[in-house]
Design goal:
nine-stranded mixed β-sheet, about 30% helix, 16 helices, alpha/beta, 28 strands, six-stranded mixed β-sheet, GMP Synthetase, Chain A, domain 3, Rossmann fold, globular
Amino acid sequence: MIITNFLERNAGLWADAPALVELNPEKWESDGGWKEAELVVSDPFSGAYRREMTWKEFDDEANRIANLLICKGCRKDDKIAILMMNSLEWLPIYFGILKAGCLAVPLNFRYASDEIAYCLDLADVVLLFFGAEFIDRLKPYAAADGSANIIVEGRTVPTLFIGAGECPGFSVSAAEEISAQLPSKPDLGYALTEDDNAAIYFSSGTTGFPKAILHTHRALTAACKAEQAHHAQTRDDVFLCIPPLYHTGAKMHWFGSLISGSKGVILKGARPTWIIDAAANERASIVWLLVPWAQDILDAIDRGDIELAGKDLSRWRLMHIGAQPVPPSLIKRWKRQFPRHAYDTNYGLSESIGPGCVHLGVDNVHKVGAIGKAGYLWEAKIVNDMRETVKRGEIGELAVRGDGVMKEYYKNPQATAEVLYDGWLITGDMAREDDDGFIFLVDRKKDVIITGGENLYPVQIEDFLRGNDAIKDVAVIGLPDDRLGEIAAAIIELRPGAECTESDITAFCADLPRYKRPRKIIFAPVPRNPTGKIEKPKLREIYAGGSVVEKQVNN
């Protein structure tokens, strides 16, 4: 069974039931919100700021898009890119591409112009859907002849404009072309199988330009099954989706709603008040958060910016987090505020189709801090540099195996060979397994700091520092040192209104082993990418090479 079959099944069984909802409180506020007397809308989650699509409408729109692609000459295995912000249109386009037998190629909405062009070229993209937010970034590649194309590395890539506003000269508006197509399932003349290629995703690009990750339909279906098995979605559930849909994490968590035929809510924006109000108004039962968003919600409640009284959050049963190590202190704090919530953390990579190759499990809150055990239909082990399994308790590199492992790095056999063997994916994450078989992340292999011959694992230091109530976020990186090779530097972002000095941090770290104590303290914002990962290469670029003038801490 391929993933589009679930959509077709849902459209048959629950044609008029809501499948997707888009909430746009940011537009509501930009339009004036409650401040403008002429606006009759007094709620950012109603009227023009809330759009809904049934399962039949979802499937019909995907069919129209598939038929449009076929009319434009797109063939099996052609690559079709999506460069859009989260919206009600995003998932129908994705599924329409799959229904046409083509490969969906989602692009990071933070890519600069040169990164967009690089990815379009690397993935051999033949057509691009894009939103109004990206007009300026695509303009440098507009075809000189005024046609509806961009030119990337000498290749012509037709473009289709999605959304409101004036269509740029280098594109055509997709709305009329899509609506002119039949809503019937396209006749491909062949049957797609789980072994057919389905999508190309891109690595996070934190070490330079990203690699293209090729997945099959089997991998997408595996993500559906794992998510539903882990969190037991039923028709009654409502999933609140906030992270970007271009990334495997958000979309593959929503796949649990797809397999159960339940409603998904796309919230455009991550302000704490919006998240809580959306969960209350839409009766959300499952909310997936990134660490900073969970922290922001708790801080807003503590400050009184969010009043929980009067908000119906009674159906919210599960809060889960992924994409990064989760501080145990955060979850303890969350459980104090929301004691009825089940909690799960999910570990995954784009190379392992996003979430769930390892997960904690809702019954294992006593193991908060661990990423858990191998997920549904997954295997996991910890290996040394010879790819031999290490003894329990020893630190090694995490490897996973299952149907969700990528087929390859597209057009990069050398990089593929470095991480794939016998069906196993070498993740690049250093980890250890405790006596109960739970896996704990230690750090990214490339982020390990070697100081005076000792290995320092920044995540361990970061977890310790997050125990300080004044600290909102922290990143530990290695900086060059003539004597020790590298030293640990802690970039610390304080909570609003918190007072904390370098001496305070030094005193707080007295409980750490001497060699683990940060030797440089920097008070500054901690940058994270859209999926919540700390952008450590950016921090190294800022603070390495003698550009830091902060006083060194003498431990």
